[in-house]
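Q: I have 814 residues here and want to know how they pack in 3D. Can you give me a structure?
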Amino acid sequence: PASSSAMPAPTSDDSALRAIVYSRGSLQLLDQRKLPHETTYLPANDHETCWTLIKEMAVRGAPAIAVSAALSVAVELHNAAAFPTAVAVRDFVVACMNHLYTSRPTAVNLGEACTRLKGTVESAAAVPGATAEHVKEAVITDAEAYQREDLASCLAIGENGAKALCDAVASRNGGTCPTQIRVMTICNTGALATAGHGTALGVVRTLHASGKLAKCVALETRPWLQGARLTAFELAHEGMPRTLIADSAAAFLMARGEVDACVVGADRIAQNGDTANKIGTYALAIAAKRHGVPFFVAAPTTTVDLNIASGKEIEIEERGSEELTHVRGTMVAASNVPTWNPVFDVTPSDLIEGIITDRGVGWNNGGVVDMKSLLSGTTSEAAGTPALVVPAGYRDLDEQGVKQYIAEHPRLASLMGKAPVESWTCHEVGDGNINFVYIVEAPGSHGVVVKQARPYVRCVGESWPLTLNRMRREASALREEFAVCPEHTPEVYVYDENMSVMAMQYLRPPHTIARKLLYTGSTPDFFGPHVAEFLAKTLFMTSRLASANDEAFRKLASENANTEMCALTEQVIFTEPYIVASNNRWTTPQLDADAAELREDVALHAGIAALKRKFVEANEALLHGDLHTGSFMLDLEHQTTYAIDPEFAFYGPMGFDIGAVISNLLICFFSQDGWEQVTGEDRSKSREFLLEAVKAVWDGFSSRFVELWKQREAERKAAGEAHVPASDAYMRKYMRELRADALGFSGAKMVRRIVGIAHNADLEEIQDADARAKCERRVLALGRRLVTNARDVVADDDENGVDALVAAASALRG
């Protein structure tokens, strides 16, 4: 039996919220039957075992079932003996998927995953000359993509759903939504039911992250008690305000006026919006209708089955009587009583306000939610918001379209001088994964940069949707930074919300990205002081310390929540480097043992958990959010420095930005030995410069920050504000704590850049793997010390800035 091979939970503070732990050749599924009292992972390295775990409810939730099924076949293929032919692989995969489908036929996601992988294997096998290995790799790669797409889908559902719920509540409240809303849900639709974040509970997560959740009311969800065991567990784990109630208490709580909205998940959605979900959902929808509470369904588009016209065609699974008559093996019902135990019910679409998907919200129109129109992108205005979740008038810009766009905007056209449009040049230069960036120049002009966010991740395409709001956040962050530090921030000329376009100052050559200058040996003495000034001004002037009042600060922090980007940061910095994750990579085999140690280091896990909590909970100031040596452009001739690309901007802990810069300087420092070895150049001056730059950043930042703080204190006193002044002793204590935060986050960034998804060119470009690994091991060593206990590196009572950190880095070189 599957349970006989139970494994302990992966060593990560966040492991309890990971239903699926996958790496090539290995799949572990959280046994959700034992939650919340026991966290046990079961191996599912073949499709038969996965079938059993799905059937026996160890894994549940339509998206998680589908992802688990797909990955189980991928693992089995990876570990299998060689197949003789491509056709043999095809026949094996088709048989596996057909069998897996029988485990839970109501969940449409499972059918969608089975159909998809069968299509993948058949296409791969049909390629002339295809080998068995080629076909295996095609299936494994597609299964892994399916997992990534589900997580991206959940993040988009959270963003779309949070807005939909607030809009619906506002429409019932004279056009105004309360600052925080009370949301009711049934069953479990969170990270445990998906590849991460969740669907309906993902909406709740997003509301909480943006400060808009007053409380989540979880129904216990009989007979398996997924609400009591799983949803309440997730809510408590993340510190979200919560209340658990009996299923039968839902209507009475609504009658008391204590529920603002309901959001539930789905296992199958018909073309007309009829929705199959956990038994009890239909009754909840009826109660919501009676009490005027907006009722939403949240599910990925993969849950929609356009092959069925209505819920009457949905097959409803029924299970045995023991689930009703027994509790944990003990009979509680009278004997010889017939039972009826449907697992799901069907909620008619006329009770559903809207269906939230990763591609937008389908709104009720005349008692029907037209899912076919939503998925095809032809939803009418009468039926609600458009399926692609783009503003009216939005269009993708290409190079010709950018020139036309500038010509139509007088403010931008004026920047191009008097040169005719025909003489303008436009080049797309974006080298990132997210946005499109165009440089437009004209004879005799300074030119302009036009940046457009599209409703998906650039490097993936439309299969990974992403909110357009990120451009608004980036433009807003740049404007705030420019207002307080114009000498180090490019100017934003135009922000067009409908087009998700920002036009900004073009930093002409010889401006160059700092990273390559630094790791190739440049030593710009002005860089450290400029970064320190930028950090001090932008962090202090947007902090609560400088704010006119707490309410205004809280409003700004809420308005600038960057949920999707923060969720991505939490994943790649605070979680994945410390567990088995498909995104992770490192120099192998040289660092295999080092990576394994990270997954077993309990003290390190405690340190990263504390840093993650700080990242999530501390709204101290407006952060750039992704500040590193690749985020600065330098002009060595004129000695200018500009910070760019704050698309991850949000209100968070100040130490995160400071630590990000320090970590990148230290990574560059450690890389110099590798560059010295492969180029034969003497890099001693570079090493000395980089360590001095670390000190210049912290020393310059801390002194300037305190100077600004004292100026603000004097202004408050002169204005006669009712304010308790900050003493010198308190300021010193504050700065010591901020230093510890910065060093801890610096360590997290260092670890992430060695074993996580994204690496630094400083090290990555060193072609000699042994030389590179030697440098990377030193980065990891210091990073681990800082994450585990930064105060062990620089003591609280140390009055010498970060000198001890610099000494520790030097010592690691031996």
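Q: Anything worth noting?
A: The chain has 26 helices and 28 strands. Residues 1-16, 379-389 have pLDDT under 50 and may be disordered.
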